[in-house]
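Margin note: ligand = nicotinamide-adenine-dinucleotide.
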Amino acid sequence: MKLYEEADVRPEVLSGELLAVLGYGSQGRAHALNLRDSGFEVVIGLRPGGATSAKAEHDGFAVLPPQKAVDGAGLVAFLVPDMVQRKLYQQIESKLKQNATLLFAHGFNIHYNRVEPRDDLDVVLIAPKGPGDLVRRQYEAGRGVPCLIAVAQDTTGNAHARALAYADGIGGTRGGVLDTTFAEETETDLFGEQAVLCGGLSELIVRGFRTLVEAGYQPEVAYFECMHEVKLIVDLLHEGGLRKMHEFVSETAKYGDLTQGPRVVDAHTSERMREVLKDIQDGTFAKNWVSEYEAGLPEYNRLLEEDLNSQIETVGKELRGRMSWLQE
Ligand code: NAD
Ligand code: MG
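Resulting structure:
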């Protein structure tokens, strides 16, 4: 495993270049602010009148329509939603400078061939392993969120060095930058959010809550047990892995964890996980997501509505209202 640090950076490969950041959401805002504070000249590309352009202007950036923003830019960062990137690329392709670098924060569109960049461009990935506000906060504190780096197309011979200089500009080299490929980043990222983080974890919480409520326990008590307390455990895991969690929970909790956990999440779950992974690897998930998006998100909206109107949400809203510190 190769980990790049500040000493590995060759700043000259990117110095003096204009950087165009397309999108000013979670990642876009953090990257743009950090790059500017690192001494780069940054222009923001957004639809005129779009939701976030006022924010970018308020932060003191020049905001231009994407076609104008990329004009003359040595590097263009694609930080708009994944489903928007294909169309946006088609709109700006003819305006891209010869040998410019196209940079992504997630490999989806390159890996599944939804964006097929011109042959003269360098195509790279810098994927911070954290949300944008953390990328910004850590940078301001003199630290940095670790990033993944990958190269899909190297025309200039400097693609990797340019990507690393960008990662340095957003603070990534302080946390360490790790070599990967577009395939590995895309497939593991999708798997993580589906099987473990967003999908798996939320499903585990909701099913635990429902089991208690259906057995006649008070929904409020079930909420505290199955949703609220997740944070305590996740914080321990995040800070010190399984060992730290085991150090801080009771002996009884530990015995219950070790003996009963594998009854709930078992070999069947692993089998389902492998199926989810296979759909990611063979492109089935990407194909389904794109057609759902293009159909106007009917199924997505139906499922989301169902999630947001479920009992755990109603109960949670009420209880969280009494814990004002949660919003701080
Ligand atoms: P976001 O939804 O927070 O922001 C999207 C931005 O794009 C907004 O400024 C929006 O106004 C703009 N936008 C939307 N449609 C547009 C269009 N047609 N033309 C121009 N601008 C448009 O997005 P995000 O979560 O920052 O994601 C950006 C990229 O970063 C994605 O590739 C995502 O996978 C990746 N990523 C996100 C995170 C995260 O924590 N959010 C982490 C790692 C990687
Ligand atoms: Mg869910």
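Residues 22-28, 46-47, 50-52, 66, 79-82, 84, 88, 105-106, 127-128, 131-132 surround nicotinamide-adenine-dinucleotide (ligand 1) (CB under 6 Å).
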